[in-house]
Amino acid sequence: MSTASTSKDNDHEIGSLDDELSKRFIALDPSGYFLVKVDLYRKEIVVEHYNNDLDDLGRAIDPKTGEILACKGSGPRKPLTVFRAKSAKHMGIQLSEGEPPYPISKIDHAMYMGRELQRAEACLKSGSEYIQD
């Protein structure tokens, strides 16, 4: 078997595993959620942090009405904070160092953000479109 064939098989295996892992249940972080974007014009990673009001079952709810929020809301929400950085490392430092409280309170959320920031940085460097997972 050639090296190229082995590499292709490995890439497929990793992709299949990642697809399957993406289907697992993940409890929401009570500290909020993030929308990650790439601003190619300014050559920056942009991260918007939103609050995450949760009910007793861990579902996101509207802070005013207590109603469960659908994945696709009825209108744009305003972020609590907008972070801008030139690299994934720079952004990670902004999100996790300095004076608390930090906008991430769960280790799985921090690991996810690290992966997304690395992907965003790769898109920023290549000039390609970034789509958050």
Provide the domain count: 1
Rg from alpha-carbon coordinates: 17 Å
Biggest beta-sheet profile = 3 strands, antiparallel
- The first-to-last residue Cα distance is 33 Å
Secondary structure: number of strands: 3
Structural class: alpha+beta
Question: How would you describe the shape?
Answer: globular
Query: Beta-strand level of the residues, as a percent range?
Result: 5-15%
Following the backbone from N to C, one meets helices and strands in this order, namely HEEEHH
In spatial order, strands of the major sheet run 1-2-3
How much helix is in the residues? 25-40%
Low-confidence stretches at least 5 residues in length (pLDDT < 50)?
none
Mean pLDDT: 87
Number of helices: 3
